[in-house]
């Protein structure tokens, strides 16, 4: 191992094992303690603030300093940083810095990691949305498949069952919305695009082929929002709200319901499997409204009102 490589490995060990001793460093690197201490001294000269404590409980620790020295990141850490930078592109004031930082990161990483970063950069997200609830083993291969336009086999669990069924789909885009990831894809032989929640997918297998599919949605993020608001729900709800559409849009996310302007008032349309939840949510909005359909929702709201009067 060359001196440069050994010192880089020393840095990686210091980052991964805070409190590691010179004896342990020497054993892991296959050198003498004197060489290990000399490598630590050289890293200090390069700007790394490395503290040392004597004794059996002592060891080396990297601390914060006045400057930003280089970092050593593995493949998963690079992917995590890239996702954070991708999110920061949508933040006013950080967009330019995030874009240039992501470009620099892509330029210096090993070539075998660049496809992963490029795929993650293709993710769509409405402004201000953060990303969570997606396993790395699902997220990365799904992103790569979208970029390569390659069909995949997924195991997807519907919201009303605990069983994950295998499905072959042609992926199009990954979208983040309200802290969740979604995959826009078309099942084999289908004529319509579908939205799959990534937290309900436990396996992604590339198939090395492509399926014929219909024209994809022009705006994947809008397609996901509309699908979530008007998906295969048991009940379609329409209420007339006696206030401006702009006010209702401030209160209702586009992925929950659609606001339709009607003069100085508006209608709110959304879907649900639970009318009791719909009654509670509409009351929570604290708006003057009338239920248009279904009529049974009015009964649920009256029942909730009677319960509140009796209870309070």
What is the straight-line distance between the termini? 76 Å
User: Which structural class best describes the helix and strand composition?
Assistant: alpha+beta
Helix content: 40-55%
Number of helices: 11
Q: What string gives the helices and strands in order?
A: HHHEEHHHHEEEEEHEHEEHEH
Q: What's the Cα radius of gyration?
A: 27 Å
Mean pLDDT: 82
* Most strands sheet: 5 strands, antiparallel
Residues in β-strands, percent: 15-25%
Query: What overall form do the CA principal axes indicate?
Result: elongated
| Strand segment count | 11
Return residue spans where pLDDT drops below 50 for at least 5 consecutive residues.
127-132
Strand order of the largest sheet: 6-5-4-3-7
Structure overview:
This protein has 312 residues and is α+β, with helices and mostly antiparallel strands. It folds into four domains: 3-63, Orthogonal Bundle (Arc Repressor Mutant, subunit A), CATH 1.10.10.10; 73-121; 125-217; 233-311, Alpha-Beta Plaits (2-Layer Sandwich), CATH 3.30.70. It is built from eleven helices and eleven strands. The protein has helices at residues 3-16, 22-29, 33-45, 75-88, 95-108, 111-121, 136-148, 220-230, 245-251, 275-285, 295-311; strands spanning 49-53, 59-63, 152-157, 164-177, 180-187, 194-197, 201-206, 235-241, 258-262, 265-272, 289-293. The strands form three sheets. Strands 6-5-4-3-7 form a five-stranded antiparallel β-sheet, sandwiched between helices. It has a four-stranded antiparallel β-sheet with strand order 9-10-8-11. A hairpin with a 6-residue loop joins strand 5 (180-187) and strand 6 (194-197). Helix 1 crosses helix 3 (33-45). Mean pLDDT is 82; it is low at 127-132.
């Amino acid at each position: 191992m060359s001196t440069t490589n050994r010192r880089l490995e020393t840095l990686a060990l210091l980052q991964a094992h805070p409190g590691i001793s010179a004896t342990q460093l020497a054993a892991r690197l296959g050198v003498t303690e004197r060489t290990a201490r000399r490598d630590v001294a050289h890293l200090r000269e390069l700007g790394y603030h490395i503290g040392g404590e004597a004794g059996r409980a002592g060891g080396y620790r990297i601390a914060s300093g006045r400057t930003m020295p280089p970092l050593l990141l593995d493949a998963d850490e690079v992917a995590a940083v890239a996702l954070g930078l991708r999110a920061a592109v949508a933040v006013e004031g950080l967009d330019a810095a995030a874009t240039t930082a992501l470009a620099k990161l892509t330029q210096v990483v090993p070539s075998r990691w660049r496809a992963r970063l490029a795929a993650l950069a293709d993710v769509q997200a409405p402004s201000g949305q953060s990303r969570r609830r997606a396993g790395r083993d699902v997220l990365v291969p799904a992103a790569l498949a979208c970029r390569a336009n390659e069909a995949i086999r997924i195991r997807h669990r519907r919201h009303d069952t605990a069983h994950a069924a295998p499905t072959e789909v042609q992926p199009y885009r990954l979208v983040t919305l309200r802290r969740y990831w979604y995959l826009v894809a078309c099942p084999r032989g289908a004529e319509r695009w579908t939205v799959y929640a990534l937290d309900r997918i436990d396996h992604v297998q590339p198939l090395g082929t492509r399926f014929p599919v219909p024209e994809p949605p022009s705006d994947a993020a809008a397609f996901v929002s509309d699908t979530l608001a008007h998906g295969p729900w048991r009940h379609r709800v329409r209420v007339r709200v006696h206030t401006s559409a702009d006010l209702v849009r401030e209160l209702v996310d586009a992925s929950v319901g659609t606001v339709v302007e009607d003069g100085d008032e508006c209608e709110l349309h959304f879907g649900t499997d639970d009318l009791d939840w719909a009654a509670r949510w509409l009351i929570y909005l604290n708006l003057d409204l009338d239920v248009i359909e279904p009529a049974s929702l009015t009964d649920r709201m009256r029942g909730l009102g009677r319960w509140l009067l009796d209870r309070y």
